Protein backbone atom coordinates (compact mmCIF):
# COMPACT_ATOMS: atom_id res chain seq x y z
CA UNK A 1 0.00 0.00 0.00
CA UNK A 2 1.36 3.44 -0.92
CA UNK A 3 1.88 6.02 1.78
CA UNK A 4 -0.98 8.08 0.31
CA UNK A 5 -3.39 5.10 0.42
CA UNK A 6 -2.23 4.29 3.92
CA UNK A 7 -2.91 7.85 5.02
CA UNK A 8 -6.42 7.80 3.51
CA UNK A 9 -7.18 4.44 5.10
CA UNK A 10 -6.00 5.67 8.49
CA UNK A 11 -8.18 8.76 8.17
CA UNK A 12 -11.21 6.63 7.30
CA UNK A 13 -10.66 4.39 10.32
CA UNK A 14 -10.31 7.45 12.55
CA UNK A 15 -13.56 8.88 11.22
CA UNK A 16 -15.40 5.62 11.83
CA UNK A 17 -13.99 5.31 15.34
CA UNK A 18 -15.15 8.78 16.25
CA UNK A 19 -18.51 8.67 14.50
CA UNK A 20 -20.61 7.83 17.56
CA UNK A 21 -19.35 10.88 19.43
CA UNK A 22 -18.90 13.21 16.48
CA UNK A 23 -22.46 12.77 15.23
CA UNK A 24 -24.06 13.91 18.51
CA UNK A 25 -21.30 16.02 20.06
CA UNK A 26 -23.16 19.24 19.17
CA UNK A 27 -26.63 17.93 20.06
CA UNK A 28 -28.65 19.25 23.00
CA UNK A 29 -31.10 17.05 24.93
CA UNK A 30 -33.63 18.30 27.49
CA UNK A 31 -35.61 16.45 30.16
CA UNK A 32 -39.21 17.58 30.68
CA UNK A 33 -40.40 16.24 34.04
CA UNK A 34 -43.87 16.86 35.42
CA UNK A 35 -43.36 16.18 39.13
CA UNK A 36 -40.58 15.89 41.73
CA UNK A 37 -42.48 15.55 44.99
CA UNK A 38 -41.33 12.12 46.16
CA UNK A 39 -38.16 10.07 46.64
CA UNK A 40 -38.59 8.15 43.37
CA UNK A 41 -38.70 11.33 41.30
CA UNK A 42 -35.73 12.77 43.22
CA UNK A 43 -33.75 9.60 42.55
CA UNK A 44 -34.77 9.73 38.90
CA UNK A 45 -33.44 13.28 38.58
CA UNK A 46 -30.24 12.38 40.43
CA UNK A 47 -29.63 9.46 38.07
CA UNK A 48 -30.21 11.71 35.06
CA UNK A 49 -27.74 14.26 36.44
CA UNK A 50 -25.09 11.63 37.21
CA UNK A 51 -25.15 9.96 33.80
CA UNK A 52 -25.69 13.02 31.61
CA UNK A 53 -23.00 15.16 33.27
CA UNK A 54 -20.44 12.53 32.32
CA UNK A 55 -21.87 12.28 28.80
CA UNK A 56 -21.48 16.04 28.38
CA UNK A 57 -17.98 15.99 29.89
CA UNK A 58 -17.01 13.15 27.51
CA UNK A 59 -18.26 15.10 24.50
CA UNK A 60 -21.05 12.67 23.64
CA UNK A 61 -23.62 15.51 23.67
CA UNK A 62 -23.35 19.28 24.14
CA UNK A 63 -26.02 19.57 26.84
CA UNK A 64 -28.53 17.48 28.81
CA UNK A 65 -30.59 19.96 30.82
CA UNK A 66 -33.38 18.89 33.21
CA UNK A 67 -36.55 20.89 33.86
CA UNK A 68 -39.41 20.11 36.27
CA UNK A 69 -42.76 21.90 36.29
CA UNK A 70 -43.88 23.58 39.51
CA UNK A 71 -47.23 21.78 39.45
CA UNK A 72 -48.27 18.40 38.07
CA UNK A 73 -50.35 20.01 35.33
CA UNK A 74 -50.36 18.96 31.70
CA UNK A 75 -50.99 22.53 30.53
CA UNK A 76 -47.86 23.74 32.31
CA UNK A 77 -45.78 20.88 30.94
CA UNK A 78 -47.07 21.53 27.42
CA UNK A 79 -45.90 25.14 27.75
CA UNK A 80 -42.54 23.88 29.04
CA UNK A 81 -42.12 21.66 25.97
CA UNK A 82 -43.05 24.54 23.67
CA UNK A 83 -40.31 26.62 25.31
CA UNK A 84 -37.84 23.80 24.66
CA UNK A 85 -38.83 23.86 20.99
CA UNK A 86 -38.09 27.60 20.87
CA UNK A 87 -34.76 27.03 22.63
CA UNK A 88 -33.68 24.72 19.82
CA UNK A 89 -33.15 21.42 21.64
CA UNK A 90 -32.45 18.48 19.34
CA UNK A 91 -34.25 15.93 21.56
CA UNK A 92 -36.70 16.11 24.44
CA UNK A 93 -37.03 13.29 26.97
CA UNK A 94 -40.45 13.42 28.66
CA UNK A 95 -41.91 12.03 31.87
CA UNK A 96 -45.45 13.08 31.08
CA UNK A 97 -48.30 14.29 33.25
CA UNK A 98 -50.77 12.69 30.82
CA UNK A 99 -50.56 10.16 27.97
CA UNK A 100 -52.81 12.34 25.79
CA UNK A 101 -52.89 15.97 27.00
CA UNK A 102 -49.35 16.70 25.81
CA UNK A 103 -49.90 15.31 22.31
CA UNK A 104 -50.27 18.75 20.71
CA UNK A 105 -46.96 19.99 22.12
CA UNK A 106 -45.27 16.67 21.33
CA UNK A 107 -46.46 16.88 17.70
CA UNK A 108 -45.14 20.44 17.46
CA UNK A 109 -41.75 19.21 18.61
CA UNK A 110 -41.72 16.36 16.10
CA UNK A 111 -42.79 18.70 13.29
CA UNK A 112 -39.83 20.91 14.22
CA UNK A 113 -37.50 17.94 13.71
CA UNK A 114 -37.01 17.27 17.43
CA UNK A 115 -36.71 13.70 18.71
CA UNK A 116 -39.17 13.02 21.57
CA UNK A 117 -38.66 10.03 23.91
CA UNK A 118 -41.20 9.43 26.70
CA UNK A 119 -40.63 7.16 29.70
CA UNK A 120 -42.42 6.21 32.93
CA UNK A 121 -45.32 8.57 32.20
CA UNK A 122 -45.45 7.82 28.47
CA UNK A 123 -47.38 9.62 25.70
CA UNK A 124 -49.42 8.09 22.91
CA UNK A 125 -48.59 10.62 20.17
CA UNK A 126 -47.37 8.33 17.35
CA UNK A 127 -44.32 10.45 16.50
CA UNK A 128 -42.81 9.94 19.98
CA UNK A 129 -40.84 6.99 21.28
CA UNK A 130 -42.00 5.21 24.45
CA UNK A 131 -39.98 3.40 27.12
CA UNK A 132 -42.42 1.63 29.39
CA UNK A 133 -42.67 -0.87 32.14
CA UNK A 134 -45.72 -3.11 31.95
CA UNK A 135 -47.31 -1.31 34.88
CA UNK A 136 -50.49 -3.36 34.62
CA UNK A 137 -48.44 -6.56 35.01
CA UNK A 138 -46.63 -4.94 37.92
CA UNK A 139 -49.93 -4.33 39.71
CA UNK A 140 -51.16 -7.82 38.96
CA UNK A 141 -47.93 -9.31 40.34
CA UNK A 142 -48.92 -7.97 43.78
CA UNK A 143 -52.07 -10.11 43.77
CA UNK A 144 -50.09 -13.09 42.46
CA UNK A 145 -47.79 -12.76 45.46
CA UNK A 146 -50.71 -12.42 47.88
CA UNK A 147 -52.39 -15.48 46.38
CA UNK A 148 -49.47 -17.51 47.66
CA UNK A 149 -49.04 -15.67 50.94
CA UNK A 150 -52.77 -15.59 51.79
CA UNK A 151 -54.38 -18.59 50.05
CA UNK A 152 -57.67 -18.00 51.87
CA UNK A 153 -57.74 -14.38 50.70
CA UNK A 154 -58.99 -11.42 52.69
CA UNK A 155 -59.81 -7.72 52.59
CA UNK A 156 -57.44 -5.39 50.75
CA UNK A 157 -56.76 -1.68 51.08
CA UNK A 158 -55.52 -0.12 47.85
CA UNK A 159 -53.20 2.89 47.94
CA UNK A 160 -53.07 4.56 44.55
CA UNK A 161 -50.60 7.12 43.16
CA UNK A 162 -51.21 10.52 41.58
CA UNK A 163 -54.78 10.82 40.31
CA UNK A 164 -55.09 11.16 36.56
CA UNK A 165 -51.59 9.91 35.74
CA UNK A 166 -51.25 6.99 33.32
CA UNK A 167 -48.99 5.03 35.69
CA UNK A 168 -51.55 5.19 38.51
CA UNK A 169 -54.35 4.00 36.24
CA UNK A 170 -52.28 1.14 34.79
CA UNK A 171 -51.04 -0.26 38.12
CA UNK A 172 -54.52 -0.02 39.61
CA UNK A 173 -55.99 -1.81 36.57
CA UNK A 174 -53.54 -4.67 37.11
CA UNK A 175 -54.43 -4.93 40.79
CA UNK A 176 -58.15 -5.01 40.01
CA UNK A 177 -57.67 -7.59 37.24
CA UNK A 178 -55.80 -9.78 39.71
CA UNK A 179 -58.61 -9.43 42.26
CA UNK A 180 -61.22 -10.26 39.61
CA UNK A 181 -59.32 -13.49 38.89
CA UNK A 182 -58.96 -14.26 42.61
CA UNK A 183 -62.33 -13.55 44.23
CA UNK A 184 -61.05 -14.65 47.63
CA UNK A 185 -59.73 -11.09 47.80
CA UNK A 186 -61.89 -8.00 48.11
CA UNK A 187 -60.82 -4.35 47.87
CA UNK A 188 -62.72 -2.66 50.71
CA UNK A 189 -61.07 0.76 50.55
CA UNK A 190 -58.99 2.93 48.22
CA UNK A 191 -57.05 6.15 48.80
CA UNK A 192 -54.53 8.21 46.83
CA UNK A 193 -51.08 8.37 48.43
CA UNK A 194 -49.43 10.35 45.60
CA UNK A 195 -46.41 7.97 45.76
CA UNK A 196 -45.30 9.78 48.92
CA UNK A 197 -45.15 8.22 52.41
CA UNK A 198 -46.41 11.33 54.26
CA UNK A 199 -49.44 11.71 51.98
CA UNK A 200 -50.13 7.96 52.17
CA UNK A 201 -49.90 7.92 55.97
CA UNK A 202 -52.45 10.73 56.28
CA UNK A 203 -54.80 9.15 53.71
CA UNK A 204 -54.66 5.70 55.32
CA UNK A 205 -55.17 7.17 58.79
CA UNK A 206 -58.28 8.93 57.50
CA UNK A 207 -59.92 5.81 56.04
CA UNK A 208 -58.90 3.16 58.60
CA UNK A 209 -61.69 3.84 61.14
CA UNK A 210 -64.28 2.93 58.50
CA UNK A 211 -62.62 -0.30 57.35
CA UNK A 212 -63.00 -3.91 58.50
CA UNK A 213 -59.96 -6.07 59.26
CA UNK A 214 -57.36 -5.67 56.50
CA UNK A 215 -55.34 -8.68 55.38
CA UNK A 216 -53.06 -6.81 52.97
CA UNK A 217 -52.31 -3.40 51.49
CA UNK A 218 -51.63 -3.16 47.75
CA UNK A 219 -49.59 -0.13 46.78
CA UNK A 220 -47.76 1.67 43.99
CA UNK A 221 -44.50 2.74 45.62
CA UNK A 222 -43.50 5.35 48.17
CA UNK A 223 -46.52 4.57 50.31
CA UNK A 224 -45.70 1.36 52.19
CA UNK A 225 -43.88 2.92 55.12
CA UNK A 226 -46.58 5.56 55.54
CA UNK A 227 -49.24 2.84 55.57
CA UNK A 228 -47.32 0.89 58.24
CA UNK A 229 -47.10 4.02 60.41
CA UNK A 230 -50.84 4.64 60.04
CA UNK A 231 -51.74 1.09 61.11
CA UNK A 232 -49.39 1.34 64.11
CA UNK A 233 -50.83 4.70 65.18
CA UNK A 234 -54.35 3.28 64.97
CA UNK A 235 -53.36 0.29 67.11
CA UNK A 236 -54.41 -2.13 64.39
CA UNK A 237 -52.59 -5.35 63.43
CA UNK A 238 -50.02 -4.83 60.68
CA UNK A 239 -51.21 -6.50 57.46
CA UNK A 240 -48.99 -7.62 54.60
CA UNK A 241 -47.98 -4.34 52.97
CA UNK A 242 -46.57 -4.50 49.46
CA UNK A 243 -43.56 -2.19 49.31
CA UNK A 244 -42.24 0.01 46.50
CA UNK A 245 -38.43 -0.22 46.73
CA UNK A 246 -37.97 2.98 48.78
CA UNK A 247 -35.20 2.88 51.36
CA UNK A 248 -37.53 3.76 54.26
CA UNK A 249 -39.84 0.89 53.26
CA UNK A 250 -37.00 -1.62 52.92
CA UNK A 251 -35.50 -0.54 56.25
CA UNK A 252 -38.86 -0.94 58.03
CA UNK A 253 -39.37 -4.34 56.38
CA UNK A 254 -35.91 -5.48 57.52
CA UNK A 255 -36.65 -4.37 61.11
CA UNK A 256 -39.94 -6.30 61.13
CA UNK A 257 -38.35 -9.32 59.48
CA UNK A 258 -35.66 -9.44 62.18
CA UNK A 259 -38.16 -8.88 64.98
CA UNK A 260 -40.96 -11.27 64.01
CA UNK A 261 -40.28 -12.83 60.61
CA UNK A 262 -42.51 -10.35 58.74
CA UNK A 263 -42.87 -11.32 55.07
CA UNK A 264 -43.78 -9.26 52.03
CA UNK A 265 -42.40 -8.26 48.62
CA UNK A 266 -41.43 -4.97 46.98
CA UNK A 267 -41.77 -3.87 43.37
CA UNK A 268 -41.31 -0.69 41.34
CA UNK A 269 -39.76 0.73 38.20
CA UNK A 270 -36.10 1.70 38.67
CA UNK A 271 -35.69 5.52 38.75
CA UNK A 272 -32.65 5.12 36.50
CA UNK A 273 -34.99 4.47 33.57
CA UNK A 274 -34.47 8.19 32.90
CA UNK A 275 -30.88 7.37 31.93
CA UNK A 276 -32.08 4.71 29.50
CA UNK A 277 -34.35 7.33 27.91
CA UNK A 278 -31.38 9.70 27.59
CA UNK A 279 -29.25 7.11 25.80
CA UNK A 280 -32.13 6.09 23.54
CA UNK A 281 -32.56 9.74 22.51
CA UNK A 282 -28.80 9.97 21.88
CA UNK A 283 -28.85 6.83 19.75
CA UNK A 284 -31.77 8.14 17.67
CA UNK A 285 -29.89 11.41 17.12
CA UNK A 286 -26.87 9.30 16.12
CA UNK A 287 -28.89 7.69 13.35
CA UNK A 288 -29.68 4.32 14.95
CA UNK A 289 -32.97 2.74 13.94
CA UNK A 290 -35.00 2.41 17.13
CA UNK A 291 -38.45 0.79 17.52
CA UNK A 292 -41.10 3.21 18.76
CA UNK A 293 -41.92 1.04 21.79
CA UNK A 294 -39.34 -0.33 24.20
CA UNK A 295 -40.10 -2.30 27.36
CA UNK A 296 -37.94 -2.60 30.46
CA UNK A 297 -38.58 -4.98 33.39
CA UNK A 298 -39.75 -3.74 36.77
CA UNK A 299 -37.43 -4.19 39.73
CA UNK A 300 -38.70 -6.68 42.32
CA UNK A 301 -37.26 -7.37 45.78
CA UNK A 302 -38.15 -10.53 47.69
CA UNK A 303 -37.59 -11.92 51.19
CA UNK A 304 -34.31 -13.60 50.27
CA UNK A 305 -32.63 -10.59 48.62
CA UNK A 306 -33.96 -7.83 50.88
CA UNK A 307 -30.71 -7.29 52.79
CA UNK A 308 -28.57 -7.07 49.64
CA UNK A 309 -30.89 -4.50 48.05
CA UNK A 310 -31.18 -2.46 51.23
CA UNK A 311 -27.39 -2.34 51.56
CA UNK A 312 -27.14 -0.92 48.02
CA UNK A 313 -29.91 1.68 48.45
CA UNK A 314 -28.95 5.18 49.54
CA UNK A 315 -30.65 6.49 52.70
CA UNK A 316 -33.76 8.37 51.65
CA UNK A 317 -33.45 6.93 48.14
CA UNK A 318 -34.85 4.11 46.03
CA UNK A 319 -33.43 0.77 44.89
CA UNK A 320 -32.11 1.63 41.47
CA UNK A 321 -30.49 0.62 38.21
CA UNK A 322 -28.72 3.17 35.97
CA UNK A 323 -28.12 2.48 32.28
CA UNK A 324 -25.07 2.92 30.08
CA UNK A 325 -24.97 3.58 26.35
CA UNK A 326 -24.16 -0.11 25.84
CA UNK A 327 -27.22 -1.08 27.91
CA UNK A 328 -29.41 1.13 25.75
CA UNK A 329 -28.04 -0.38 22.56
CA UNK A 330 -28.75 -3.87 23.96
CA UNK A 331 -32.36 -2.90 24.84
CA UNK A 332 -32.86 -1.43 21.36
CA UNK A 333 -31.40 -4.45 19.59
CA UNK A 334 -33.48 -6.83 21.72
CA UNK A 335 -36.65 -4.96 20.73
CA UNK A 336 -35.85 -5.48 17.05
What do these coordinates show?
There is one protein chain. With 336 residues, this protein is an alpha/beta fold. Helices cover 47% and strands 16% of the residues. It has 12 helices and 12 strands. The strands form 3 sheets. The protein has a 6-stranded parallel sheet, sandwiched between helices. Strands 7-6-8-9 form a 4-stranded parallel sheet. It has a two-stranded antiparallel sheet with strand order 10-12. Strand 6, helix 6 and strand 7 form a beta-alpha-beta unit. Helix 3 packs parallel to helix 4. The longest helix is centred in the first third of the chain and has 20 residues. The N terminus is likely disordered.
Low-confidence stretches: 1-22
Total helices: the number is: 12
Biggest pleated sheet = 6 strands, parallel
Q: Quickly give the structural class.
A: alpha/beta
Rg measurement, Å: 22 Å
Identify the strand order in the major beta sheet: 2-1-3-4-5-11
Helix content: 40-55%
**Number of DSSP E strands:** 12
Distance between the termini: 40 Å
Backbone shape: elongated
Mean pLDDT: 92
Give the SSE order as H and E letters. Answer: HEHEHEHEEHEHEHEHEHEHEEHH
Beta-strand proportion: 15-25%
